[in-house]
Amino acid sequence: MTTSEGNGPVLSIRDLAVALPAGADRRYAVEGVSFDVGPGEIVCVVGESGSGKSVTAFSVMGLLAKGELAAERGEILLEGEDVLKASPERLRDLRGTRMAMIFQEPATALNPVMTIGDQIDEVLQIHTTLSPAERREKVIAIMEAMHLPDPQALYDRYPHQLSGGQRQRVMIAAAMVLDPVILIADEPTTALDVTTQAQILQLIKEMQERRRTGVLFITHDFGVVAEIADKVVVMRHGAIVEQGPAAEIFANPKVDYTRMLIASVPSLEPPSREPAMGPVAVETHDLVKGYGGKSWLGRATQPAFLAAKDVNLVVRRGETLGIVGESGSGKSTVARCIVRLVDPTSGAIEIAGTDIAGLSTRALRPYRRRVQMVFQDPYRSLNPRRTVGASVMEGAMNFGLSHEDALARAQRLMGLVGLSPDALDRYPHQFSGGQRQRIAIARALAMEPDVLIADEAVSALDVSVQKQVLELLDQVKREFDLALLFITHDLRVAAQICDRIAVMRRGEVVEEGPTRELFLNPRHEYTRTLLAAAPGRHLGHAVAAE
Amino acid sequence: MTAIVEKRAETAVARGDAPEPAPAAPAAPPAGFAGTLKRYPLAAIAALVLAIIGLSAIFAPLVGTTDPTALNPAARLQGASAAHWLGTDHLGRDVWSRLVYGARVSVVVGLAVAALAVVVGLVIGLFTGFIRWLDPIVMRVMDGLMAIPGILLAIALVSVSGASLVTVIAAIVVPEVPRVVRLVRSVVLSVREEPYVEAAVSVGTPLPKLLWRHVLPNCVPPLIVQATYVAASAMLTEAILSFLGAGTPPIVPSWGNMVAEGRLLFQIAPMNLLYPGIALAITILAVNILGDALRDRLDPKLAKRVGQR
């Protein structure tokens, strides 16, 4: 196959409309979508969930769920050929050779029982007639180009032996091995740590510069857009609201929605805050949580792995302490120890002057209500089979409140978190993610706690919703004089809400201090790395300067 | 690779990563029982067959039967006639009557074993799954029980405590319990990690309430399905035991006993063996088909896929 080497767009979408099945809340998943991707151009399609950005990408690949979604109008021209009219055989041919796609979760997108090398090789086996030796050479070469360490050895490894970032590199290698003219990346860095994300973005950029691949990059994160986009397409409710060169969109957004999205990205510039002087609500002393290392008869030996080592934290009432770290840093372990969802191995957790680290289930009960938690995933933290009211009232009634009193309290709290009291009679699936997170906050508040722990409580939410939930958390903290322990991987979010921040890495707190000081003057090497990796770190300044 | 990509895309969509229609209702809501039957015609037939078998077992005296134990040596081994719809056996007993009354035994055994095994297994499984230190102890006991061949255990129990319907049921329940326990435990182990269960723990919900409110509802769908399989295998085991002479006493008309007796004169009157055999096969097949349909219907992921085809 020869490529028509020209300056025309490699991908051109014209007036695309994809119909939703009958009975959906709107007629089209996407409608009237038109844009081009030129060779060597990175086009970012940005939007919140439900905007139709993924449907657009899946249409290009011909991967729309059969029987549910179908392109009704328009054309998708891949180097002049309409893929919507292509036969299944032709589509299969195009995928991998002319267009390729990478996904959000590299852990599930790779086959766990095939070696890395074989998975990349599979593409070559299907689409080329090269000999095994030639194929291997090509695989090694592309792995090298993806900066995978020691490709010869890696060739025979399995996906679980690789880190998340390496797995995503392997996915990109498999996508790029036949030099497609367009790479579609569907939230490829969302599941990755910030430092890894920065590396993958760097890699995609390099690819586009060296190989002149057009990139269609789907993301919800304007920070990432600022980092890599040449051109930006903003989508909402299945339609394009604005598109243009990246610089122009950021400097001069024409539509309110775009402006709101850009403004919703929390700035890395923390506002200055008064230090909180309230009484200490919770304190940990040399908290350790280890896993493994138990002998056959249950005698404890040295733990094989320490998820948290010697963690010392203090949170005062009316104060927000952020624990920031990447996955595996032990930040959630610390939170779960304090709520006593897991038992700490050693150390003390002091709440109201009592060490609760070693208390039995029975002795712990009175302290349970003092520490409450809001979980990460609003879709799983509410029992789908119980009404919202039952969930919110459960805790208070466990502690002896009558049904009427608990109901009255729940109704009051619903108002407080910005929902109507009749929400109590409905089931969780009738609410959006943001609303569910409000319900989860109401459930925690129904216990009248001293300490509220938010474990990645906003990371599953769209930016605009994220902002509202952050504001709500801040508001309830002030209103109830709570000690708020805010666990996050996102430095930008931490900058906005935390009074103090503790940075964790591999189970240890490497640096702790007032937010502003820590951001402006990071002492530890790792803190500096994290700050440098945060996508769109210039964005805050740009908006602030405006 | 392209195959992988397509597959991934499917799973990505199934997981709801493609953020299109709100993840509210799983699949299309089937219009109650009638809708389910329409979608699974085979299951409808199976349900009808089971209903006929169940009803005729209950109303056995009303469906053209005589006393199934009445001997009539003069009319031995007769073929089908107006008086004896399916002929008579080697003692001159009416085969149709014995078949219908035999259904009673099978139905009772199937239902009783399924109910007992599920209730006992559910209780053990719930606590085993949730209380960490209990888990290894109970599960090793269960492993031990599973290691004993079910029929052997049943023969031993029956020979110790004598043959009666109750001992037969007890003997079949014991080896079925570990299977239910393992199923419940596996569900509990995954549900206990759900954030909403953790949330309930952190608001101080006591263990029994926690199990009842948050964990049990998740166990019910797979248990209903498992119960149908338990019932089917219990009916078969009962027949095997009776056939071997270790089950219901020979005086009781049961399908297993009928097969055992029919075996002796198979060359002369083959149908006396085949009738109960066919009845048993049809019943068990119907129960299993119903179980499969229930599984498809109750597992939202499967239901969606089956519904699309």
TrEMBL record, chain A:
SUPFAM superfamilies: P-loop containing nucleoside triphosphate hydrolases
GO cellular component, one term: plasma membrane
UniProt membrane topology term: Peripheral membrane protein
Location(s), subcellular: Cell inner membrane
SMART domains, per the entry: AAA
Highest taxon above the source species: Bacteria
Matching InterPro entries: AAA+_ATPase, ABC_Ni/Peptide_Import, ABC_transporter-like_ATP-bd, ABC_transporter-like_CS, Oligopep_ABC_C, P-loop_NTPase
Domain ABC transporter: 11-262, 282-531
GO biological process terms, semicolon-separated: peptide transport; transmembrane transport
GO MF terms held by the record: ATP binding; ATP hydrolysis activity
Predominant localisation class: membrane
Pfam families attached to this UniProt entry: ABC_tran, oligo_HPY
Keywords from the named record: ATP-binding, Cell membrane, Membrane, Nucleotide-binding, Transport
UniProt KW Nucleotide-binding keyword: yes
Homology family: Belongs to the ABC transporter superfamily.
This protein's name: ABC transporter ATP-binding protein
Taxonomy of the source species: Bacteria, Pseudomonadati, Pseudomonadota, Alphaproteobacteria, Hyphomicrobiales
Automatic annotation (TrEMBL), chain B:
A GO CC term assigned to this protein in UniProt: plasma membrane
UniProt xrefs under Pfam families: BPD_transp_1 (PF00528)
Residues covered by the ABC transmembrane type-1 domain: 107-291
TM stretches of this protein: 42-63, 105-131, 151-174, 273-294
Membrane topology term: Multi-pass membrane protein
Chief place of localization: membrane
Keyword presence, Cell membrane: yes
Superkingdom, natural source: Bacteria
Compartmental location: Cell membrane
Keywords per UniProt: Cell membrane, Membrane, Transmembrane, Transmembrane helix, Transport
BP GO terms, sorted: transmembrane transport
Keyword Cell membrane recorded: yes
Family statement drawn from the similarity comment of this UniProt entry: Belongs to the binding-protein-dependent transport system permease family.
Protein name stated in the entry: ABC transporter permease
